[in-house]
Amino acid sequence: MGVLCRILLVAVFSLLSNTLLVISLWGIQQRSILLQYLDIVTSFDCTAAGFQGMEQQRQFPHEIPTNISDPNRTHYMDPWGLQVLHHYKSVFPIDGLTSESITLVSQMSLNDLRIQRLLDLASRWSGYMSMTLYFPHSSAGEPTNLTMEEAMRVVDELRANFSSSLRNVDFHIVVNRQRDLDYPINFLRNVALNSARTDFVLVLDADFIPHANAHDMLLKEIKATPTLINDTKALLILPAFERFLMDNETETLVTALDLPPTKEAFLEQWEQNHDLYDEFHRERCGHCHRPTNFRLWYKTREVYKVSYRVSFEPYFVLRKSPTLPPFWEHFTGFGKNKISWIEEMAAAGYQFYVSPESFLIHINHDYGTDRSGRYPRHILNEYRHFFQPYVIRRYGTHLYDSSDE
């Protein structure tokens, strides 16, 4: 976990010319429901890493035998026990944003680090944002089990304290009242994706921060590329990089203020300090982003096309359409949750292009449980015996990922 404290000090961002941020101190009353909730999750860890830890400790009653396949299984999980409230406290229309703009789509649970990353995202994104907030249930009795009304009060206070910074964010609330469930990441993604206000969406994980003015630059690139504007099966990738923490830094103190605003500034910083950045997970999962063709991106000024490879999992902008598959919600916790979505899009005939100027930076954090090994068995079973047979039946294409055999 990051540093959590009873008197929460968080950097409050205000946009100045869409790029300059001013940090101010956020004081919260001692009886604040938001502060109480953040204090509680100090020991609970409702991040993805925390749920991965729970996942390893528990025996799975839903373990799938290795010799079955359900031809009736679809993308959607049974929502039993999950309460969903779409567009809670929706933002008002913003001048200059239309249905042809881009909505940033993401999901998160709440703790001080995640609130910081939410503010980082909002400071760098001038379009709409569609954000699902998840309030988990704990069968062990931790007092994180909020009612929907209590979760609404937490969100009310979050918005009140950061009203100017979060003016472009639509919040959707998912409360788990009674279900023993690993972090339902794809269910949360589908809630945010289906609630996006615009035709184009940028689907991100909340700890990936875009460069300054990313919305307008991406929209300009899309409109200048006929394939991207006309083909509903074309997507535009933002190359992903990671920023390492230096000896005197912590994940809670490094913010969007510390990240370069443009490609030129990014490459200049990297040249000055080769230990500061790298291609995202080049050492941990090089094949997951290698098809982006970073060597070409470093020197190009033109949109370029790349080919799909197994386990490719970039972040990108695309147009919502009836051909866009939803996320496979049965992947909960860690493993295959985004790889499977992109694999299905490749099977459906989507084409992959790369933005020459836009990029994302992931501020590294402690992953907790080591994820360098194999996926959990129930995730592999779900992938092999349910997801893959569905893809083959639906598209007649076999893109099986055998890297974990």
- Evaluate the radius of gyration: 20 Å
**Low-confidence spans:** 1-31, 43-68
Query: In percent, how much strand structure appears in the residues?
Result: 15-25%
Mean pLDDT: 79
Question: Which outline best applies?
Answer: globular
Please outline the major beta sheet: 9 strands, mixed
The portion of residues assigned to helices is 25-40%
Task: Return the domain count.
Answer: 1
Calculate the terminal CA-CA distance, rounded to whole Å: 32 Å
Estimated structural class: alpha/beta
User: What strand order characterises the main sheet?
Assistant: 3-6-5-4-7-13-9-14-12
CATH topology term: Spore Coat Polysaccharide Biosynthesis Protein SpsA, Chain A
- Number of helical segments? 11
CATH architecture: Alpha-Beta Complex
Could you give the count of β-strands?
15
Give the helices and strands as they follow along the chain. EEHHEEHEHEHEEHHEEHEHEEHEEH
Instruction: State the CATH class.
Output: Alpha Beta
Question: Would you write up a description of this structure?
Answer:
- The chain is an alpha/beta fold and 405 residues long.
- The chain has a single domain (15-395), classed as Spore Coat Polysaccharide Biosynthesis Protein SpsA, Chain A (Alpha-Beta Complex), CATH 3.90.550.
- It is 29% helix and 17% strand.
- A nine-stranded mixed sheet has the order 3-6-5-4-7-13-9-14-12, sandwiched between helices. It has a four-stranded mixed sheet with strand order 8-15-10-11.
- Helix 4 (148-161) links the parallel strand 5 (129-135) and strand 6.
- The model is unreliable at 1-31 and 43-68 (pLDDT under 50).
